[in-house]
Design a protein that fits this description.
Keywords: Activator, Nucleus, Receptor, Transcription, Transcription regulation. With 461 residues, the chain is mainly alpha-helical. The protein is built from 21 helices and no strands. The radius of gyration is 30 Å and the shape is elongated.
Length: 461
């Protein structure tokens, strides 16, 4: 298991030293497979045969390709491999699949034929007890092992089902189409239908692994922003939220840390944030933020744990968060002198412009999700404080309105603790947000400073 079955997403190295065991054992195994009518190990244990089979297969392949062995001999050898202990065939195919990946397209024929022989039925009768049941298990394992390689080489291998249902979700992607086309087509079908069926979920999951989180999220957001019909954008939000659950933590980091800042800071993209797609994107962003934050407090996802240190370094270098070195996004947005902060004293302005409840609660800012949320709210604060209005300021309003709506619906709204206190007085200048109810909803009233900011903002209404 440890040698032949890599964890998901990893690939075996067929040239690894573990596949080059003692040459005398390999020679005796090759002779046994080629000459005997039945596998009887005398000088070797079965686990040694399993570890030696990969090197034996390489010798047999070389002999076949050089004309030393005929196809009939290969049939006898593959029958011997799977005729008694099915695990031997699993070890052989695990190595063959890794080997095929290393070969050019014109060099793969013999290796694929050998996989086909190992997966096919025996040419002779087998009277061993429970053999047929073991073959069913073996074939289901082989089918999973071969799925990716068969997809890449557009090869068809019929795995005998022997009474079990075939696996419906392998070889899902059409072999010669760009994955971006596949993604847009499947999303269009899902949007038209109004729900995500299980086959589509498997395709989305395959595309997520193949293209990566940024590619996957970015292209689906582009599809959302193309929608101009209100009912379709609302449906798209619900569907995207369900699709993003495939890896909500990582998608949220990308959406809030890269995609939204990119849209909000590039004036050439502001037109895409107009209603209805802009409203829909604001809704989706809030749902993802709240969902990730609430589950994140419990425990990090397994993928998050694996990438934790890499993410921390990545996000710390991208978004420095302290008063000495302001965020790159803040520097970008505050470069024009017309930006006005509500605090009069320059010292107060630099020290308090990014002060938020999360800092007073001493939330861990080394955490990637906390960091991304803090920087998004810094960006929102800067947009509200700027004198340039446009679709991006309207988007910020929709984003904050959705935060308040989710609070009213019983959401804990803990993401709002990352909002700088200075944002409150800027928000109440927006007519839709200028009410005591909104002020109380977005301010942390458990803190003395929060109560002071809320009282000041309500008094100014």
């Amino acid at each position: 298991m440890q040698t032949c079955m890599p964890e998901e997403g990893k690939i075996l190295n067929p040239d690894h030293p573990c596949f080059r065991p003692d040459s005398t054992k390999v020679e005796s195994l090759v002779a046994l497979l080629n000459n005997s009518s039945e596998m009887k190990l005398v000088q070797m244990k079965w686990h040694e045969a399993c570890l030696s089979i990969s090197a034996a297969i390489l010798e047999i392949l070389n002999a076949w390709e050089n004309g030393v062995l005929a196809f009939e001999s290969i049939q006898k050898i593959t029958d011997n491999i799977k005729g008694k202990v099915c695990s031997l065939a699993v070890c052989a195919v695990a190595w063959l699949v890794a080997h095929v990946r290393m070969l050019g397209l014109d060099e793969r024929e013999k290796s694929l034929q050998m996989i086909r022989q190992l997966a096919g039925p025996l040419f002779s009768e087998n009277t061993l007890q429970f053999y047929n049941e073991r073959v069913v298990i073996m074939n289901s394992i082989l089918e999973r092992m071969c799925a990716d390689v068969l997809q890449q080489t557009a090869t068809q291998i019929k795995f005998p089902s022997t009474g079990v249902d075939t696996m419906p979700y392998w070889n899902l992607l059409p072999p010669k189409r760009p994955i971006k086309e596949v993604l847009t087509d499947i999303f269009a079908k899902v949007l038209e239908k109004g729900w995500v069926d299980s086959r589509s979920i498997h395709i989305f999951d395959t595309l997520l692994h193949m293209g990566g989180v940024y590619w996957f999220c970015n292209n689906l957001i582009k599809e959302l922003l193309k929608e101009t019909r209100k009912e379709h954008t609302l449906r798209a939000v619900e569907l995207l939220y369900s699709i993003f659950c495939l890896d909500m933590q990582q998608v949220t980091l990308v959406l809030l840390g890269h995609i939204l800042p990119g849209l909000l800071t590039d004036s050439s993209k502001w037109h895409s944030l107009m209603d209805p797609p802009g409203t829909a994107l604001a809704k989706l962003a809030v749902w993802c933020a709240l969902s990730s934050y609430s589950s994140h407090k419990g425990q990090a996802s397994t993928r998050q744990k694996k990438r934790h240190r890499e993410d921390i370094e990545d996000y710390i270098s991208l978004f420095p968060l302290d008063d000495v070195q302001p965020s790159k996004l803040m520097r970008l947005l505050s470069s024009n002198e017309d930006d006005a902060n509500i605090l009069s004293s320059p010292t107060d302005r630099s020290m308090s412009s990014s002060l938020s409840a999360s800092q007073l609660h001493t939330v861990n800012m080394r955490d990637p999700l906390n960091r991304v949320l803090a920087n998004l709210f810094l960006l929102i604060s800067s947009i509200l404080g700027s004198r340039t209005a446009g679709p991006h300021t309207q988007f910020v309003q929709w984003f904050m309105e959705e935060c308040v709506d989710c609070l009213e619906q019983g959401g804990r709204g803990s993401v709002l603790q990352f909002m700088p206190f200075t944002t409150v007085s800027e928000l109440v200048k927006v007519s839709a947000m200028s009410s005591p109810k909104v002020v109380l909803a977005i301010t942390d009233l458990s803190l003395p400073l929060g109560r002071q900011v809320a009282a000041k903002a309500i008094a100014a209404l």
